[in-house]
């Protein structure tokens, strides 16, 4: 049996791996408010470091899980703050904090797997166990990424972000150090035009993900035709969309604020946990589209021409 097959069988036979992740998720779920508070406190500390350093033009923040410290049973995150030159910034602000207490199931798992590997008489070594732990840590980190993205989506963190930077363009990414990362927050108040909008949609495959987390402010979109596009986590503020057709598009956690829809058609689209705040709908339909946990004000429900089934997925917020 080849080494990769032995490792695969070892993982499949190790019920401890599944149990450890279940314990991790339960611990995180039970302490989700504390987790969010810890991360926000670290960003607050970084804001103070930015002020002390007098650093300007800040556009990027990376929150990364450091793998090298895992070998010592330490689960540490690094925050890197960079200006608009990104990785070319020679004076990055770097801050690290430890979160080992929430990774205890993974620390215990490593001990259990090391003990179990003895049954394989040298076929599974310490190096193999470390690689398994690294892979599991990535999965655990993905859980925290979802939590932090949700925290920024649900809560107004503009005051906190403004302490770090007042730049019109600012992104927070979270992932592994020098590895893959995902956007958990984006502010892009740069005013765009139809040329930029059309450029973001060009190409069936390449353009599909270009619109995730995109931001559109103070603009008019005319005669638009979007098909199979993903607008998840996108933000539309004070946007007028006239004669627009959106076919089979994804609007997951998309935010619309002070927008106006004139003669628009959303067909076979999915609105999942989207927010429609103070929006106006004129001759706009949502044919065969799915509404799930969508936030909207009561006054616009009749104007949206929704079916009874679609109305079940609408949550009405209180108008001030």
How big a fraction of the residues is strand? 25-35%
Rg computed from alpha carbons, rounded to a whole number of angstroms: 23 Å
| Element string (H = helix, E = strand) | HHHEEEHHHEEHEEEEEEEEEEEEEHE
Tally of separate helices: 8
Helical content class: 25-40%
Low-confidence stretches: none
* Approximate shape: globular
Write down the domain tally: 2
- Alpha-beta content class: alpha/beta
Q: Kindly, what is the distance between the CA atoms of the first and last residues, rounded to a whole number of angstroms?
A: 68 Å
Mean pLDDT: 89
The biggest sheet, with number of strands, parallel, antiparallel or mixed sense and barrel status, is: 8 strands, parallel
Tell how many strands the DSSP assignment holds. 19
Please summarize what this structure is.
The protein is of the alpha/beta class and 320 residues long.
């Amino acid at each position: 049996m080849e080494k990769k097959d032995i490792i695969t069988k070892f993982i499949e036979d190790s019920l401890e791996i599944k149990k450890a992740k279940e314990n991790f998720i339960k611990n995180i779920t039970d302490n989700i408010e504390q987790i969010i508070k810890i991360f926000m406190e670290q960003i607050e500390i970084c804001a103070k470091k930015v002020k002390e350093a007098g650093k300007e033009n800040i556009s990027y923040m990376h929150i990364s899980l450091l793998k090298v410290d895992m070998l010592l049973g330490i689960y540490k995150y690094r925050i890197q703050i960079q200006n608009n030159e990104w990785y070319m910034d020679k004076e990055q602000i770097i801050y690290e904090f430890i979160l080992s207490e929430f990774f205890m199931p993974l620390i215990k798992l490593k001990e259990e797997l090391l003990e179990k590997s003895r049954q394989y008489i040298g076929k599974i070594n310490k190096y193999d166990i470390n690689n398994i732990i690294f892979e599991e840590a990535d999965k655990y980190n993905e859980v925290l990424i979802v939590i932090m993205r949700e925290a920024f989506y649900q809560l107004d963190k503009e005051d906190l972000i403004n302490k770090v930077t007042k730049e019109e363009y600012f992104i927070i990414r979270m992932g592994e150090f020098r590895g893959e990362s995902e956007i958990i927050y984006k502010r892009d108040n740069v005013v765009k035009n139809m040329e930029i909008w059309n450029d973001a949609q060009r190409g069936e495959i390449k353009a599909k993900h270009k619109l995730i987390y995109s931001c559109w402010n103070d603009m008019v979109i005319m005669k638009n035709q979007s098909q199979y596009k993903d607008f998840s986590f996108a933000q539309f503020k004070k946007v007028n969309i006239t004669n627009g057709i959106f076919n089979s598009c994804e609007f997951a956690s998309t935010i619309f604020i002070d927008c106006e829809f004139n003669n628009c058609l959303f067909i076979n689209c999915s609105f999942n946990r989207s927010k429609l705040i103070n929006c106006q709908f004129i001759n706009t339909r949502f044919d065969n589209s799915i509404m799930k946990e969508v936030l909207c004000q009561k006054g616009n429900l009749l104007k949206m021409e929704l079916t009874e089934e679609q109305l079940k997925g609408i949550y009405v917020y209180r108008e001030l």
